[in-house]
């Protein structure tokens, strides 16, 4: 395990959680987008993470064997839950029965996801700071 492996792992977590927060922000921004670029309401997007095992160096191979790998975004998928429907016959996007399809974005769920991503981001920063303090203490012992 290299000297900076712990920082590399936490940094990959920081990058992944920042990307997750960006996607959640897009979902919140499009909560009222009825006519997206494809002619349908905006569909909520969800980030999928996976273990990052792309490194090829000896240190990264050793880290993988010890279970020390980071995380990366493997995909951003659309949520297949049905659209919300409201009855509004005078709306320009209403169907023949008078219903308008709204995005399947729920603000409450997005805020909970944002809080979770924020806490994960903070936990990775705390881990980096703890590792930095451990390294500083180790250097003080050598004096």
Set down the secondary structure blueprint.
Elements: H1 5-29, E1 45-52, H2 58-65, E2 70-78, E3 84-87, E4 99-102, H3 107-141
Antiparallel strand pairs: 1-2, 3-4
Notable traits:
single chain; two-stranded antiparallel ribbon; 143 residues; alpha+beta
Describe this structure in words.
By secondary structure, this protein is an alpha+beta fold. It has a domain at 5-25 and 40-81 and 106-141. It has 3 helices and 4 strands. It has helices spanning 5-29, 58-65, 107-141, and strands at 45-52, 70-78, 84-87, 99-102. Helix 1 (5-29) packs antiparallel against helix 3 (107-141).
**Structural class by sheet pairing and helices:** alpha+beta
Q: What is the helix tally?
A: 3
Strand content: 15-25%
Write down how many β-strands occur, each being a DSSP E stretch of 2 or more residues: 4
Describe the strand arrangement of the main beta sheet, using strand numbers: 1-2
Rg, Å, rounded: 22 Å
**Low-confidence region ranges:** none
Shape, principal axes of CA atoms: elongated
Distance between the termini: 24 Å
Biggest β-sheet, characterized? 2 strands, antiparallel
N-to-C series of helices and strands: HEHEEEH
User: Helix amount, in percent?
Assistant: 40-55%
Subunit organisation of the chains: single chain
Question: What value does the average pLDDT take?
Answer: 87
């Amino acid at each position: 395990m290299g000297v900076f492996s712990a920082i590399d792992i936490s940094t990959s977590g920081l990058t992944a959680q920042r990307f997750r927060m960006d996607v959640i922000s897009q979902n919140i921004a499009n909560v009222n987008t009825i006519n997206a670029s494809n002619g349908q309401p905006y569909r909520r997007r969800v980030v999928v993470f996976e273990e990052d095992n792309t490194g090829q160096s000896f240190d990264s191979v050793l880290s993988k064997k010890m279970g020390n790998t980071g995380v990366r975004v493997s995909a951003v998928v659309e949520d297949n839950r049905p659209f919300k429907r409201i009855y509004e016959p005078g709306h320009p996007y209403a169907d023949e029965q008078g219903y308008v399809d709204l995005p399947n974005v729920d603000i409450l769920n997005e805020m909970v996801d944002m809080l979770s991503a924020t806490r994960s981001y903070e936990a990775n920063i705390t881990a980096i700071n703890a590792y930095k303090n451990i390294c500083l203490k180790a250097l003080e012992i050598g004096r």
